[in-house]
Amino acid sequence: MPKHGKKYRAAVEGVDQTLKFDLSDAVKKAIEAGPAKFDETVDVAVCLGVDPKYSDQMVRGAVTLPHGLGKTIRVAVFCKGDKVAEAKAAGADIVGAEDLVEQIQGGMLDFDKAVATPDMMALVGKIGRVLGPRGLMPNAKTGTVTMNVTDAVKELKAGRVEFRVDKAGVLHAPLGKKSFGADKILENFKALLDTVIRLKPSAAKGTYLKSMAVATTMGPGFKIDTTTVKKFLEG
């Protein structure tokens, strides 16, 4: 078992982690229990009723959170020609083509998200082994392989979250900073859930939202009663 620090042990003391809470209550409790002095991120883990080893049950997508993530997102864009000026005007932090690939091959990874125009993907593929494991590979399914560079960059800067289920069928996503307060975190949560439900694979049978829990970076997790999700989304 991993060893936890004093602040975590103090935060988890008195918390029955077997209990399930109304979705709104779980978020409020998670924010209140966050023990760190820094502004922790509020994260959610959602276990979906899918088997990701089958391609028709993979859940992957992106959502622009209404209140963003509360941090500066550095965006790199792989493009040429007129798109270079467009990317810079949209607020891209790094823009390039062959030169950018060479920098990344040399160890430069000073960005959080990447966008590429379709004609650049053969080039970007050369560094797929570097970008892929770090979640930085542009992908058409998440809108980061596109000719509409302006919208892609602006959405990423505004707090666009990309997500995909892991091998166990669990989806992890950030919902913003603890300092946002419960109301803004809940609005971000609603946007995420609306998108995840919309992306439910037709091949997925049985219960789709099997379980979920919310926690801050350093705090204890609070399980959510999934029967309260429908009422929350309709509210």
UniProtKB/TrEMBL annotation:
Coiled coil: none
GO BP annotations, alphabetical order: regulation of translation; translation
GO CC terms: cytosolic large ribosomal subunit
Protein's UniProt keywords contain Repressor: yes
Molecular-function annotations in GO: rRNA binding; structural constituent of ribosome; tRNA binding
Pfam families, A to Z: Ribosomal_L1
Record's keyword annotation contains Ribonucleoprotein: yes
Sorted UniProt keywords: Repressor, Ribonucleoprotein, Ribosomal protein, RNA-binding, rRNA-binding, Translation regulation, tRNA-binding
Family: Belongs to the universal ribosomal protein uL1 family.
HAMAP family reported for this sequence: Ribosomal_uL1_B
Protein name: Large ribosomal subunit protein uL1
